[in-house]
From TrEMBL:
It comes from Companilactobacillus tucceti DSM 20183. Gene3D superfamilies: 2.30.130.60, Sun protein, domain 3, Vaccinia Virus protein VP39. Residues 1-301 form the SAM-dependent MTase RsmB/NOP-type domain. GO terms for molecular function: RNA binding; RNA methyltransferase activity; S-adenosylmethionine-dependent methyltransferase activity. This is Fmu (Sun) domain-containing protein.
Length: 452
C-alpha cells in the first residue's frame, strides 16, 4: 500500500464524482491521497541511449522508451538529455499520435515539452515538428527542453492557436491538442492545485478547449489525425467537448485506441450518449498505475492535397560561412551541414524555410549552431547536445571533481594536449558541453543559466 498523504478535496468535488461514479468514487478519492508513481523515459536521439545510471528493470508496457523510477535533475543523464522525467499516463499520448518521419506535426499546447520531446524521439530528426505555447515564459521552458534533448527538426513558437489558423489551414498531417485543463488528474502530484478547482474553473477550461479544438480542425489536413488529451477527469472537458466537436465538424471520426491493462473506455453517458466515445480512453488512478488522463483520437475525412510552400532564405554571407567552415574543419570530423540561415548574429540549421513562419513569434527554428563574433564563429551548447562523439575531433572525459567544477563555472586544468581549440566535454561517457582549450586548460564556456 502506498503512503497516504493529505489532499484536501472540496465537498463540491466529492459530490460531483460521487454522483458520476457512485460507489467507485471512494476508491478514486483514496487513490488521490496516495503517493504518485514516478517514471522517466530515454532519449533515442542520443548516442548509446540506453547507457544510463538508472534501472531499466521496470519498463512501461505502452511506451517503447518509458520506465518506472525516479531520476535526479542534477545527474549527467538529465543534464545531457539522456532522460526526461514524465509521469506514466502522459507517456501514452505521443504513442497514440504515432508521428511518421516525413510528416508535419503540430503540438499546439506544447509546454513544458514532455510530449513534444517524446514526439521528436519517434520522428528521429525527420519531418517537421512545430511546438507551440501561448505563454511566453512557458514557451522558453519548452525551447530549453527541446535544446537539452538534442532535437533539430523542431520549430518552437509562441503564439495563440488563433494566430496560426489563416496561414496554416490544412497544413499538418497530425495535430496534438494536449489541452490546458482543470488538472483534476494531477491533484495527488500537485496537491496545491486543488485550491484552484471550482465548477466555474472547469467550465472556463472547457470553453477555452472548444476554441483550441476548432483552430486545430482548420489546420489539419484532410485525412489527418487529431489527438486530444487532458489530465483531468471532468466530463465537461473530455467526453462533452469531443461530442460537441464532432457534431460541429462532421468530417471528424473518433477512432479506436489500443487499451492496456488498467485503461478504460471513454464514457458515452458523459458525452450526450455518443457511443463512439467508447473508443476514447480514460485512466483513473484507482485502476491505473499513473495519474488521471483522457485521450481521444480522431481522423478527418478526405484525401490530402498538395500544400504549396514558399520559402525564405536569410543566408549568411560568404565571409560569414567561411568562419563556420573554418570552425568545422578545425574541430569536427566530416560533417555535412545544410539549410544554414542567420538570425541576427546567430547561425541555425533550419527545420523549415516556409514563409508562413515569418509572421510568427519563433523562438527556435531547428538547431542553433552558434554565434558569429568578430572574425570568428563560436558554437552553442545546442549543437553540442545534438552531436555524437564521432562527430568531434577531440573529446575530453572529465572526472568527478572536474565535472563538479565545470558545472559551477570554473575552468579545469588538465594533463593533456589538444591540437584544436574547441573540444567536446563528456562525463560518464555523455557529451554535455563545449570546452575551449588553451595551454593545458579547459576554459569554461558552460552557459551561466545552466551552472549549478
Amino acid at each position: 500500500m502506498k503512503d497516504l498523504m493529505r489532499v484536501n478535496l472540496s465537498e463540491e468535488f466529492k459530490a460531483k464524482y460521487t454522483k458520476l461514479l457512485g460507489d467507485r468514487a471512494d476508491n478514486l478519492f483514496k487513490a488521490i491521497e496516495t503517493e504518485s508513481q514516478n517514471s522517466f523515459r530515454l532519449n533515442p536521439l542520443k548516442n548509446n541511449y540506453q547507457n544510463v545510471q538508472y534501472s531499466l528493470d521496470k519498463p512501461i508496457d505502452y511506451s517503447k522508451i518509458g520506465y518506472f523510477g525516479d531520476i535526479d535533475g542534477n545527474s549527467i543523464d538529465h543534464i545531457s538529455g539522456y532522460v526526461y522525467s514524465q509521469e506514466p499516463s502522459a507517456m501514452y499520448v505521443a504513442e497514440v499520435v504515432n508521428p511518421k518521419a516525413d510528416e508535419k506535426i503540430l503540438d499546439l499546447c506544447a509546454a513544458p515539452g514532455s510530449k513534444t520531446t517524446y514526439l521528436a524521439s519517434i520522428m528521429d530528426s525527420q519531418g517537421l515538428l512545430v511546438s507551440n505555447e501561448i505563454n511566453n515564459k512557458r514557451a522558453r521552458v519548452l525551447s530549453s527542453n527541446v535544446e537539452r534533448m538534442g532535437i533539430k527538426n523542431a520549430v518552437v513558437i509562441n503564439n495563440s492557436p488563433k494566430d496560426l489558423e489563416d496561414g496554416f489551414e490544412g497544413y499538418f498531417d497530425r495535430i496534438l491538442v494536449d489541452a490546458p485543463c482543470s488538472g483534476e488528474g494531477m491533484f495527488r502530484k500537485d496537491p496545491d492545485s486543488v485550491q484552484y478547482w471550482s465548477p466555474e474553473y472547469v467550465e472556463q477550461c472547457a470553453n477555452r478547449q472548444k476554441h483550441i479544438l476548432d483552430s486545430a480542425f482548420k489546420m489539419l489536413k484532410d485525412g489527418g489525425t487529431l489527438v486530444y488529451s487532458t489530465c483531468t477527469f471532468s466530463p465537461e472537458e473530455n467526453e462533452e467537448n469531443i461530442a460537441e466537436f464532432v457534431k460541429r465538424h462532421q468530417e471528424m471520426e473518433i477512432v479506436p485506441i489500443k487499451k492496456y491493462p488498467g485503461m478504460e473506455d471513454g464514457r458515452p453517458e458523459w458525452g450526450y450518449d455518443n457511443q463512439d466515445l467508447k473508443k476514447a480512453l480514460r485512466m483513473f488512478p484507482d485502476q491505473f498505475e499513473g495519474e488521471g488522463h483522457f485521450i481521444c483520437k480522431m481522423i478527418k475525412s478526405g484525401i490530402a492535397g498538395t500544400t504549396k510552400v514558399r520559402t525564405f532564405r536569410n543566408q549568411p554571407t560568404k565571409v560569414e560561412m567561411s568562419y563556420l567552415d573554418k570552425f568545422i574543419k578545425q574541430n569536427l570530423s566530416e560533417i555535412d551541414l545544410t539549410a544554414i540561415f542567420k538570425v541576427k548574429e546567430d547561425l541555425y540549421q533550419a527545420a523549415t524555410f516556409d514563409t508562413r513562419f515569418k509572421k510568427l513569434h519563433v523562438l527556435r527554428n531547428g538547431l542553433k549552431l552558434g554565434e558569429l563574433k568578430k572574425n570568428r564563429f563560436e558554437p552553442s551548447i545546442s549543437w553540442m547536445l545534438e552531436l555524437k562523439p564521432n562527430d568531434l575531433k577531440s573529446v575530453y572525459e572529465l572526472d568527478d571533481d572536474q565535472f563538479a567544477k565545470y558545472l559551477h563555472g570554473e575552468s579545469v586544468m588538465i594533463d593533456q594536449d589538444f591540437s584544436n581549440k574547441w573540444i567536446g566535454l563528456s562525463y560518464q561517457g555523455k557529451l554535455f558541453s563545449w570546452g575551449r582549450y588553451s595551454n593545458k586548460q579547459i576554459k569554461n564556456v558552460y552557459p551561466k543559466g545552466l551552472r549549478k
